Amino acid sequence: MKIFITGIDTNVGKTVVSAIVARALKMDYWKPIQCGDLKNSDTMNVKKLTGGLFHYFPEAFRLKEPASPHLSAKLEKVEIKLADFKLPKSDNLLIEGAGGLMVPINEEGDMIIDIARKFDTKVILVSRNYLGSINHTLMSCQLLNSYGLETIGIIINGEANEETENIITSISGVPILGHVDTTKRLTKKFIDQQAEKFENILA
Length: 203
Known about the structure:
The chain is of the alpha/beta class.
């Protein structure tokens, strides 16, 4: 199984949800592109939050600048091509994107969503309830559908909003899988607790 975790925006909690889903489904983890904070990367954080129980593949690109991959690569005189990405050998792999679906990875027009399409993954979309999130979530669902990608569902990071979530599922047809509780401290114990909620839902 291959699952691609993406979000409706940059800071909606993709890495936290990635750790939860990886823990719930006992999946290996791979982030193809890391931009910025190389000493505290998303891969390192997921490994810490899941207790190092699985395999964590190295990023295909590790870029210093905390910016869009196309710009980070340009600043470091690195060229990113879709052909450069080789799927790690794993029967059960979670792939975490960088930013949202339409974040460019090069100046030729390839986007994060093209990585998901290249590997024909199923997708979990991470959302958060805020003013404007209906628009962002519905556009993301529509884009995934237009690319022929199967969206398993939406995970809401944070508090529920029944009216918002009802209209999203009604229009998109994509189910809300559940909610990640809010916390002041991200710990392995917290991830374990959240993973328990999603084990049966995602199985």
